[in-house]
Amino acid sequence: MARLPRRRGIGYVPEDRRVFPFLTVRETLEVGVKPPITPGNTAWTSEKVFDLFPLLRKLEKRNGGTLSGGEQQMLTIARSLMGNPDLLLLDEPSEGLAPLVVEHLLEQLQRLREEGLAILLCEQNVDFALELSDRVYIIDKGHIRFEGTISEFEENEELRLAYLAV
Fold first, then answer.
1. Helices 99-114, 69-81: inter-axial angle, 10-degree rounding
2. Model confidence at 36, in pLDDT bands (50, 70, 90)?
3. Residue 126 — left, alpha, or beta (φ > 0 → left; ψ -120 to 50 → alpha)?
4. Cα separation of 61 and 164, whole Å?
5. Which of 94, 120, 130, 148 is 20 to 30 Å from 107 at the Cα level?
6. Which segments of the chain belong to CATH 3.40.50.300?
7. Three-class SS string for the chain?
8. What is the pLDDT of residue 1?
9. What value, to the nearest 5°, has the Cα angle with vertex 88 and ends 86 and 91?
10. What CATH number has the domain spanning 5-124?
11. How many CB atoms lie within 10 A of CB 149?
C-alpha cells in the first residue's frame, strides 16, 4: 500500500489554500496536529505557529472563510506545520497576494529554512523563488529544461529570456 505524503514527512501547502471556511483559525490548527515523524524533532504547537505568524493569534477565533487571501495563506502554512513535516511542499504560495504580504511570507519561509526545514517550492514569481532557493529547476511541458544553482541560472541570459522573459 502506498504511503500517504504525511506519513513520509511531507507537509503540502496547496495553491488554492483549501481553508475550512467554518472552522476557526484555532480549530484549523488543531485539525492539522500530528506527531513528528523524525525522532528528536521538536513538535509544532499553536504557540510556535503564532510566534511565526503573530497575526494568526489575533485571528484565532475567526472562521477561515472570513480571512483575506494572505491570512488564509498563513493559516494553510500553519496548518501544514502542525503536522510536523520534514519537508514543506509549497505550490505557488505568493499567488494573488499583495506585495507587502508576499514580503512577510518570504521572511517567514526564510526563517523556517534557517531553522532547518526543507522546502520545495513551485513558484512562478521568480524574485520570490530566488530569494528562498538554493537551486533552480525550470520545467516546461513536463520536462526539466534547466537544473542548476542560482548563479548558473542568473548567468544564463538565453535561458531566462526563453522561459521566463526576464
1. 10
2. confident
3. alpha
4. 42
5. 148
6. 5-124
7. CCCCHHHHCEEEECCCCCCCCCCEHHHHHHHCCCCCCCCCCCCCCHHHHHHHCHHHHHCCCCEHHHCCHHHHHHHHHHHHHCCCCCEEEEECCCCCCCHHHHHHHHHHHHHHHHCCCEEEEECCCHHHHHHHCCEEEEEECCEEEEEEEHHHHHHCHHHHHHHHCC
8. 46
9. 160
10. 3.40.50.300
11. 12
| All cell numbers assigned to 62 | 475567526
Total residues belonging to the chain:
166
End-to-end CA distance of the chain: 44
Which residue matches cell numbers 493559516?
75
Q: What is the pTM of this model?
A: 0.88
Cell numbers of 138, please?
525550470
